[in-house]
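Hey, can you fold this?
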Amino acid sequence: MFGGAALSWPASAAAQAQRVSVIGVLGTTSFDSVPVRFSAFHQGLKETGYVEGQNLAIEYRLAEGQPDRLPALAADLVRRQVAVIATNGGSFPALAAKAATSTIPIVFTGIGDDPMALCLVASLSRPGGNATGVSLTSSELVEKSLELLRELAPSADTIALIRGEGTDSTQYWSEHVAAEARAVGLKLTVAARAVGLNVLVPHVQIDSDFEAVFASIVHQGAGAVMVAATPVFVRRRAQIVALAARYRLPTIYPWREYCEAGGLMSYGPDLLDAYLQDGRYTGHILNGAVPGDLPVQMPTKFELVINLNTAKALGIQISRLLNARADQVIE
């Protein structure tokens, strides 16, 4: 009996080793840019029974802030026949994955646009096809951010919206995404004019010289700034934050990483929760779930982060009420 059991161990171990799932991660940013987000993704995978290096292998394809590389990176993952492609960092990776395959399941996160308008899914409740994930779209984000910005800079009569409009070097910039960027600018303009504010929306390529951008909006009289949720801007957050400080412009950002780099305030969906859900969905699909049956998740958690050191440097007094509403205060 013992001899038979001993003989069975190698075969059992070999079978276990073969049960390693392989997924692809397609994104615009590197680990160095947002490591905590990737940690949340791994936590979601772990909750569904998958740990990299144990029963999971991950093929990483990260564009390092160059979205024109994404179609080729997506095609490479398809050639490698990964079980799932998890995308992050905005609409670019999701669109590249969708264009590359109609059969491999796709789980997206960081989508700041309407996934239905981007033709990623048929509906939010029943996506159909091979894609599902987490959308960060919220109709109230622009108005709420404007409200907070007015609290920071009540005397400003002109504000500037800095949003990415594409690159000069690539044809990959989707018309859908460009339209969404214009829609954000229009929405802010309408909301601002309703309360008597002027809005500047400079033409900002995602590989723009931000020095020139800030000099231009200051010359045109901007008294405060809103930075839109353009994923590739995260890699250049230190530069953007430094320019806002140099020109002494109260600025609200979309994500906490800007405040951790010295930005004044951020407000937006909790991205760690989104990446956690991304990992869970990926694990569920590995366990047999059909992506078309998994509803697209919408943001339920939003976070307000305030950097009191930056407020002090700008001479801005943060009210007790605003301070109490913050999810995190950096001192």
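Oh, and this one too while you're at it.
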Amino acid sequence: MNAVAPRADTPGLLGGRPLEEWNAAYTRIEGHLHALRVRNRVLVGQLVLQVLDRAMERAPQEPARSPTELAAEEMDLLVTDWFRRVLNEPSASADQPLSTRGRLALLLADMPGQWQDQFLRPEPWPEAFVTSMRETYLRAGPDFQLSRMTPRPLDLGPIATLTDFRRLPYKKMFLLWSLFALVLAAFFYFTHRW
């Protein structure tokens, strides 16, 4: 396992940031890998350290950004670049569809079950893995499109017409039930009077 080279920092700091912030970044990246179903602890540890090392290199140049933010961005860049190489996709400015469909292809190709050790590894990859990833990437669905949903008024059905007292459509039924309730009340009154 390749260890991260120690950085010459003051005690309690890494990359000019407190260790607690790097621990939070570690936890976030570890959670991200678990969401991708990478379960091998050694592999997860290696990948997290790889991402954190890249984030630590950027940390001195970007002091306004938290280590968690830097690490998350590095993770996304690393994963998207890996998808681009595995899926043989040309470089494009719109990385979000590649990232989304690539993650779906990972799950459809059963990467966590069969090829977990190939995740974020450099070439060469097993031919069966590459073939499976590329086939499932094509089946991952059409390009995502933004859609707009305009709000429509709610149709409450007959209950809305029953509560509209200006035009009571069920006047006869209302009068009939009122008369029936009045007869029942009168019957009760006369039978329980004594």
